[in-house]
Write a structure and sequence with these properties.
mainly alpha
Length: 253
Amino acid sequence: MNGLLDYIDGDSFLYRLNPLTKLLLAFALCAACFISHRLLFVVGIIIVNLCLSATAGIVSRSIRIMLSLVKLSIVLFLVQIFFVRDGTILLTLPLNIYITERGLLFSLLFVTRLIAATMPLTLMLSVTKMTDISNALTQKLHIPYKYTFVLTTAIRFIPLFAAEMAGIIEAQVARGVEFDTKNFFKKIKLILPLCVPLLISSVRKIEGGAISAELRGFNLRKRDSGYKRYLFSARDAAVVICLCVLIIAAALF
């Protein structure tokens, strides 16, 4: 099964955009979430993300990401709602704990922003190859390739490390370690020692990747070394205009 950050082949409108336009699209949607202070506007950004995912044929992945973020948001919502104590009191609980109208609205906006700002980045990674991102940044923005390579490699290693950690946990479960405990602190105590083998495995992978890059002439690569050219088209200009309208709308609301 594909990871949440893996590239998925396709040929829709999003796939044909310039990689830099996709990056701008993701960052503009994230920025719009934090510029606007209206909950309905941020919810609209989530709907826009789902619509874009549907056009790219990856709506099921976006829904999975959204549901994963909702689980995390529930915890953050419960933490935030008890810390904001300004405004009209809606509910009073024992131990001098109460929920206010302002705290409720702030917590809802906080978790909604988290969901809306995370989804565009995962959408962009799902429809863009890492090599295209690094090459476009090098060719168009004149960023040294070694820096773009580090960025894309770090993103590429996230699912690899997650799979490695899952394998280590499965090996420990096979040895009788009780990772299915419901005690949060006990589970953390069991996971912390596993960071050592994960670190050792990560260092080995990084060393192997460095040797492979040197054998392929990594230090000799220049800005125009890539064979593929990333040209801007009318569709990129149309997307940029729509993003400008979106940012203006976020500032007005």
